Inverse folding.
């Protein structure tokens, strides 16, 4: 009886090399997108939605920080404490 050796792992293409890198600038940060599919999908979004996604997933902004930075809502938490009067 012969045994067939099996590899105890699998490989995927998450880290495969891409031939075209796309640079996106958001809030003064340069973000390099290696996936052409992702860059294409991001480019089809309206600018505000693209900015919010990049700020959240690539720059690590919280929901509150994104709201303040994008001026999506006006909330006292977005203002410096020195400007808030009690």
């Amino acid at each position: 009886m012969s045994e067939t050796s099996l590899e105890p792992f699998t490989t995927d293409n998450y880290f495969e090399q891409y031939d075209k890198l796309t640079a996106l600038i958001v809030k003064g940060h340069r973000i390099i997108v290696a996936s052409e599919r992702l860059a294409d999908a991001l480019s089809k979004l309206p600018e505000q939605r693209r900015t919010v996604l990049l700020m959240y997933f690539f720059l690590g902004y919280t929901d509150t920080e994104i709201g303040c930075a994008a001026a999506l809502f006006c909330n006292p938490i977005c203002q410096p404490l020195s400007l808030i009067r009690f």
Observations:
- Residues 47-57 form the longest helix (11 residues).
